[in-house]
Design goal:
This protein is an alpha/beta fold. It has 10 helices and 14 strands.
Length: 344
């Protein structure tokens, strides 16, 4: 499976997508039933855009796992115990680890060069979080004794950041959005000054979920720029149902690693796609999801960038091939008349 991490061209990607589709049709029972329900002949699939994308809600009620595999490891979506939570069964832990490391290296650098801090309270308080697994793995690769998590102990985090800034250490703070805002509120009300440092990288992972007043991503990033005194305010985009991560290194523009793609489907017709620059619902190809499902129709809204926008913004990622996109929010189900076809 490490061949997916060696993808260099669009032809490579297409070939691997079509091979993965055929493999998953044969070996993932839920996906095969979904394709058959749509009356699609898998032998006729010759283009990526013709591959059926499984509604992400399927992870809530079905076990998506290769019939040839068994596993006790799974990741579970965040939410209350009363909610019906998604489960993503992980048949190959090494595959997830390799995806984490290679994606991080592609866009940011080697984990060994950084101290990792985590301000992820809502995720630390839940079990089976893929985000916590990812940060744990990066901390282990880093091997720095200063690595660590913080729940609501903002005073301690402030002291650690201040000390590491004095030592001119390269630091990455992974933070859920509402917790980063809480930390900045603490600093403001306690008259603590967060010293600016070009060695500090903030990576916000989303996660407002009603905990703070809703705001646009651009407004959120502007607050972080000012509050942390850093130009390196990055974002990470992934979810429980994926084994790969896209990163934004600025301007609220995400890039995918070489084995991951974003397609924007028409919210009126879930089997068609809109052109670059137009808004729609996000479909994700994640080839690291070899043993569950690599083709997922999400409930996120987004858009891919046009060629002129890519030229205008440039690219900061250390990529050889990817696509660039923006995440615009969640789908309002009253506006997706065609998508009910997907979740029968």
């Amino acid at each position: 499976m490490n061949k997916i991490f060696n993808i260099k061209t669009e032809a490579d990607f297409k070939h691997k997508c079509l091979e993965t589709f055929q493999y998953q049709y044969q070996n993932i029972e839920v996906y095969r039933k979904f394709v058959d329900y749509l009356k699609i002949n898998p032998k006729e699939i010759q283009e990526i855009e013709k591959i059926p994308f499984l509604p992400i809600e399927m992870f809530k009620n079905h076990t998506l796992l290769d019939k040839n595999k068994t596993t006790d490891l799974y990741f579970q979506s965040s939410g209350t115990t009363q909610m019906n939570l998604s489960k993503h069964w992980i048949a190959d832990e090494n595959l997830y680890q390799e995806s984490i490391e290679k994606s991080f290296e592609q866009f940011i650098g080697k984990p060994e060069d950084y101290i990792f801090l985590g301000l992820l309270p809502s995720y630390l308080e839940k079990q089976n979080s893929s985000l916590i697994y990812m940060v744990d793995f990066l901390m282990k690769k880093s091997g720095k004794p200063e690595n660590g998590y913080f729940l609501y102990n903002h005073e301690e985090l402030y002291k650690v950041l201040k000390e590491l800034s004095k030592q001119n250490e390269k630091v990455i703070l992974f933070g859920v959005a509402f917790a980063l805002l809480d930390f900045l509120d603490f600093a403001k009300t306690s008259h603590q000054i967060i010293e600016s440092s070009d060695q500090l990288i903030i990576i916000e992972t989303g996660g407002m979920k009603g905990r703070k007043q809703e705001m646009t991503k651009d407004d959120l990033l502007a607050i972080f720029h000012q509050g942390f005194g850093s130009d390196k305010i990055y974002s990470e985009y992934s979810m429980t149902e994926l084994l790969s991560q896209a990163y934004s290194l600025g301007q609220n523009i995400y890039e995918t690693p070489n084995w991951m793609r974003i397609l924007i489907r028409n919210t009126e017709d879930p089997f068609s796609y809109v052109e670059a620059g137009r808004n729609g619902a996000i479909n994700i190809i994640d080839l690291a999801n070899r043993y569950s499902c690599s083709f997922i129709a999400t409930q996120d809204l987004g858009r891919t960038l046009t060629d002129s926008e890519i030229l205008h913004f440039g690219t900061k990622g250390k990529k050889t091939n990817s696509n660039q996109f923006q995440v615009l929010g969640r789908i309002d189900h009253s506006d997706i008349r065609g998508c009910s076809l997907l979740v029968s």
